[in-house]
Amino acid sequence: MSKPKIEWRAQENGYYCLSGAVERDTVPAFWQQRHEWMPQDARVKLDLSALSRVDSAGMVMLLHIYQQLSSNGSELTLLNVPEQLVTLLRLSHVESMLAACID
Hints:
Layout lengths: L5 E7 L2 E8 L4 H6 L1 H4 L5 E12 L1 H16 L3 E5 L3 H9 L3 H4 L5
């Protein structure tokens, strides 16, 4: 069985796709490589439709992506947010942090 992983694909014009299992087993290594994939666009659209799983570590990573992009003056929009992530945000009482980003 192959180890779950995260893939970040740049599409075009600030549009990106995040896929795979965004969970405690995959987030640390992926986050350490963020200098390779962190967007520099003024407007970033991140499609989450290809996520197979997201847990609280994945949620925190997305919050950090939002914070890093915001501190660089970029605007983040999350597309096709899985219900699992919406539930985690709600249960963690942090949904307001990303509410403006969810399309």
